[in-house]
Design a protein that fits this description.
The chain is an alpha+beta fold and 92 residues long. It has helices at 28-31, 50-59, and strands spanning 41-44, 66-71, 75-78, 81-84.
């Protein structure tokens, strides 16, 4: 029996996210609220520090849209794009 992916899918686990097609998922900007004079918004998996907020302010355009930021020890996913973390001391 095959799954009909044209119908809405409810996720029971984060592991199922790999099997969901993008046409079934809503854009984060359709779900999250808009605030007056909002530069940008970020939905993160870790509590942001002041330094990270300043870094995201440089990274994101001031267009009033929401972005997803998923941080791991060696990499960060920003809107689904992988960014590897590098130490400034190790750069040559």
């Amino acid at each position: 029996m095959t799954k009909d992916w044209s119908k809405p899918v409810t996720l029971d686990s984060v592991l199922l996210l790999d099997f969901v097609t993008y046409r079934n998922m809503k854009d984060i900007n359709e779900i999250m609220p808009k605030f007056p004079n909002m530069k940008w918004g970020a939905l993160t998996n870790a509590y942001p520090t002041n330094a990270k907020i300043k870094e995201m302010d440089k990274l994101f355009p001031h267009d009033g849209k929401w972005h997803t930021v998923f941080e791991e020890p060696q990499q960060v996913f920003v809107d689904g794009v992988r960014i590897w973390k590098k130490d400034a001391d190790r750069l040559s």
